[in-house]
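User: Second chain of the day. Same drill as before.
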Amino acid sequence: MKGWPLKLKVGLYCATLTVLALVASAVIILPLIYHRQLEELDENLTEDQEEVFRSLEAALGPKLESSKPLTLRVIPIPLRLRYVQLDGPDGVVLYKSANLRDADLRNLELGLQTVTLFNRNCRVGTFQRGPITLHIGTRLGTIEGMQNDLRFGFFFAVPILAVFVFLGGLLLARHALRPVSAMTAAAERINAQSPSERLPAPTGKDEISRLTVVLNESFDRLQRAYDSAARFSADASHQLKTPIAVLRAGLDELRVCAKLSIDDREIVDVLLQQTRRLTTLVEDLLLLAQADSGQLKLDPVPTDLVPLLSEIADDLDALGSENQLSIVCDMPATLYALADARRVKIILQNIGENAVKYNVPQGQVMITARSEGPSVTVTIANTGHAIPMGHRDRLFERFNRAGMGENIKGHGLGLNIGRELARAHGGDLILVRSEEGWTEFMLRLPASVESPKSSHASHPATFAG
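Assistant: Same format as last time:
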């Protein structure tokens, strides 16, 4: 039930409580009614025995002495349908009603008790006065019939009431949760593009109204903190670009200085390399700051991805030459997407550079592009070690290196930037699979409605993952 809607849970809880309450009531009420009816029957049997003994005293005298069997005339007419047996001083049966047939009640103890006669439950009272013992009883059919009727009624009433209570609880929960549904819809509209959206404040001063006020205040604080962090990140990145550019220009001039020794020139080369890395990091942070603040501007136009992919393939071929990597392409002659070419190139560069960095010597990088209905897909795969399972859920987080080796250059921002840019286009960047010897990422972008029908290129893939 963890994933069930709250309205359904409330309805089920109400129905369950109703069923439990009815069952508990039946467990308590039915025995009480039974015992109450039994008490009333015992009172009637007690009154009946008084009437029988009065009739006997009238016929036999106060001492109730009789040496001969008694006839039906000594039994009052209203009681002649009862089970009646009269025993004399020596246990001699003086009278037994015809409905007792061959049953014998002489072994019963004094008092009222339930016995089985003719396979039916009967209530029998045994009373003694003077030398005569009276057994008088009747069947419990009426009482047991009423018990059965009550059980039958409960049996049919419980599911019917449960259904009605369930529906009533569902309607009440839906009515009570209507403000929560409105809050949920409003909360879903709060994002980086519309951070000023707030939850509608319901009328009244109930718990939901108070919760709405608290959440709106929290959103206000979060927006202020978010805006401050975004401004700081953007301002810091922007302000860093100028001194880094000046530093890089100065190092470039220093490198060509004729007075530098070979060792000094090597030190300058190292500094230039680190400056380039710092420039890349600042540009990445500025791009992420723009994405976070909703200020990332795209210029999506019908763009043929094939020239971009060919350019990326050439770059990867140069990057992978040291490890003798082979670059394999499988793409159509043209493939149009509605995209910002400059931003898409950043995505492809980030994925491609990872495919080279995390490859094995003499490995392979495969670039595959396809048109799939309203989308185009670009898959970049490489031979290499599998991404550890524990890191795959956090693969697209910022500064996450996926446990693939801290000695490999990078800041752990490439995949995060790639996914942010892909989603800004209305597409996505996902990990398709990663197993030993083969890792595959797929970029999905919206297809351009102006794209011409593409014909397949003449360089199919040569590696099957």
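Confidence is low (pLDDT under 50) at residues 452-465.

User: Great, on to the next one.
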